[in-house]
């Protein structure tokens, strides 16, 4: 067994220089640190800490995503908009993992295909903002950029970017990942536990429907066991981590050289994506991401044109390697049926086979008259339907779904069969950033996607 932390191949100085080339380029959405020396010290400390994920795991994920791009499996990616340090509790992590496992079971059963499970977890701490400042009354302070940068409290001290948070981000990611690994490898994710993942959640129509499905799965598993099948594979699940690769003072020191072949790998997560606001073709983020080996995602909003998409492919996936590049479309329910088809038509004429994933959240934000950022569940559903329709018409593969969700009973998105309305939003609105689907809305969405998948 090769020890993945043992250097075998020495880093090529030209490769290292390339990894720092982003520093020469225009960069967006980075904090104003007031003490550059403290930032350098924090980055150096992180660079000396162990990798959170291994290159070998990343290679397996690339293979899994290549299969999804070919239409042989489907990616389920979900979690908070912004994880918080205070929210990294056993209970909240468990509820999110359980919700993703439940959704995955619904999808596997409905679509009869493998589901790649991935959390927006263990590192989703940095946020791009539409404005650098926030004003309340006559006070203006720096915007909240996520717990890895500054605090949410609206005071000058808390909003000051604090480099100690970079190191705290690493440790919080490590303890979150440790729990995820324990849950998914230690028996909790065993398919024979399919009923227990539903325990502890309030009874509602979606989890009653889930109970029915769990009974069928149970019966099938018992039958197969009685027939002598070996169920070792059902005891553990592969669960991958992901976050937006935004904050370069964290991402760069988490980048290591794969001891087997000298390639750079970002070891902060298996999969990273570049957001809609930082994917400039000639900017720092795209340059850095072109140099690491992880599978990467790029968010594509409704104004993306074919030429931009082609240049992104040339830059990020010049070898056209299956599984390398994922396009996460977030067009909005009202735009997807116009904005996605031209991209799909163009891709059919190119050699590239990116994985296409729908993010039905970020194009559907609204603000209520009472000031809550929210989304309508119906718009989320409509964008998912539009995504499947566009792929069906183009003959391309709808390969996955990317959602902001929590396992908790929050009231952040409007609608769903519990009919959360504007007055209800205030009762349990906990997100510090974008509104998330609650447990029940997440399950409802999974049933809907399962229907779309089985109708392919
Ligand atoms: C996000 O995924 O939380 C996000 C900010 O997305 P986007 O870059 O698509 O706006
Ligand atoms: Co968000």
Name the ligand types.
phosphoenolpyruvate, cobalt (II) ion
How many separate helices?
A: 14
CATH C-level name: Alpha Beta
Strand count, sense and barrel status of the largest sheet are: 8 strands, parallel, barrel
Give me the secondary-structure category: alpha/beta
Widest sheet, order of strands? 1-2-5-8-9-10-11-14
Q: DSSP strand (E) fraction?
A: 5-15%
State the total count of DSSP E strands. Answer: 14
Helix content: 25-40%
Shape: globular
Radius of gyration: 21 Å
Reported by name, the CATH topology is TIM Barrel
Element layout with pairings:
Elements: H1 13-19, H2 36-47, H3 55-69, E1 74-79, H4 90-111, E2 115-119, E3 133-136, E4 139-142, H5 156-159, H6 164-185, H7 205-226, E5 239-244, H8 248-251, E6 255-257, E7 264-266, E8 271-274, H9 284-290, E9 296-300, H10 306-316, E10 325-329, H11 336-348, E11 355-358, E12 366-367, E13 373-374, H12 377-394, E14 398-404, H13 422-425, H14 439-454
Parallel strand pairs: 1-2, 1-14, 2-5, 5-8, 8-9, 9-10, 10-11, 11-14
Antiparallel strand pairs: 3-4, 6-7, 12-13
Helix pairs in contact: 2-6, 4-6, 4-14, 7-14, 11-12, 12-14
The structure holds phosphoenolpyruvate and cobalt (II) ion.
How would you characterize the overall build of this protein?
The protein is α/β, with parallel strands linked by helices and about 450 residues long. About 40% of the residues lie in helices and about 15% in strands. The chain has a single domain, classed as Aldolase class I (TIM Barrel, Alpha-Beta Barrel). Strand 1, helix 4 and strand 2 form a beta-alpha-beta unit. Helix 7 crosses helix 14 and helix 11 runs parallel beside helix 12. It starts with 12 loop residues before the first helix and ends with a helix. The chain binds phosphoenolpyruvate (PEP) and cobalt (II) ion. Phosphoenolpyruvate binds next to loops.
């Amino acid at each position: 067994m090769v020890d993945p932390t043992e250097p075998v191949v020495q880093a090529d100085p030209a490769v290292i220089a390339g990894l720092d080339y982003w520093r020469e380029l225009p960069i967006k959405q980075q904090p104003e640190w007031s003490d550059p020396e403290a930032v350098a010290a924090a980055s150096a400390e992180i660079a000396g800490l162990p990798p959170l994920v291994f290159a070998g795991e990343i290679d397996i994920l690339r293979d899994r995503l290549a299969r999804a791009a070919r239409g042989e499996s489907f990616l389920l990616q979900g979690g908070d908009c912004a994880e918080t340090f205070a929210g990294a509790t056993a209970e909240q992590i468990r509820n999110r993992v359980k919700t993703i496992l439940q959704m995955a079971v619904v999808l596997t059963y409905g679509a009869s295909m493998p589901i790649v499970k991935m959390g927006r977890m263990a590192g989703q701490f940095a946020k791009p903002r539409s404005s650098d400042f926030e004003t309340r009354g006559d006070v203006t302070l720096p915007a909240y950029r996520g717990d890895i940068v500054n605090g949410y409290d609206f005071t000058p001290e808390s909003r000051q970017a604090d480099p100690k948070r970079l190191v705290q981000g690493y440790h919080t990611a490590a303890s979150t990942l440790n729990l995820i690994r324990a849950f998914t490898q230690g028996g909790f994710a065993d398919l024979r536990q399919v009923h227990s993942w539903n325990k502890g959640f309030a009874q509602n129509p979606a989890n009653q429907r889930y109970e029915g499905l769990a009974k069928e799965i149970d019966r099938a598993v018992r039958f197969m066991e009685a027939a002598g099948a070996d169920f070792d594979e059902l005891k553990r699940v592969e669960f991958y981590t992901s976050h937006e690769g935004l904050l370069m003072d964290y991402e760069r020191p988490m980048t290591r050289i794969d001891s087997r072949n000298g390639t750079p790998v970002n070891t902060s997560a298996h999969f990273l994506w570049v957001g809609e606001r930082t994917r400039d073709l000639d900017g720092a983020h795209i340059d850095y991401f072109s140099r690491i080996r992880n599978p990467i995602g790029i968010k594509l909003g409704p104004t993306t044109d074919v030429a931009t998409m082609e240049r992104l492919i040339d830059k990020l996936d010049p070898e056209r390697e299956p599984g390398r590049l994922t396009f996460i479309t977030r067009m909005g329910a009202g735009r997807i049926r116009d904005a996605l088809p031209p991209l799909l038509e163009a891709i059919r004429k190119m050699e590239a086979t990116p994985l296409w994933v729908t993010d039905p959240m970020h194009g559907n934000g609204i603000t209520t008259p009472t000031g809550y950022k929210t989304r309508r569940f119906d718009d989320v559903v409509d964008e998912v339907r539009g995504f499947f329709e566009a792929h069906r018409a183009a003959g391309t593969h709808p390969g996955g779904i990317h959602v902001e969700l929590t396992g908790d009973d929050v009231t952040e998105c409007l609608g769903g069969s519990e009919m959360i309305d504007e007055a209800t939003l205030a009762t349990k609105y906990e997100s510090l950033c974008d509104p998330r689907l609650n447990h029940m809305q997440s399950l409802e969405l999974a049933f809907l996607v399962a229907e779309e998948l089985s109708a392919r």
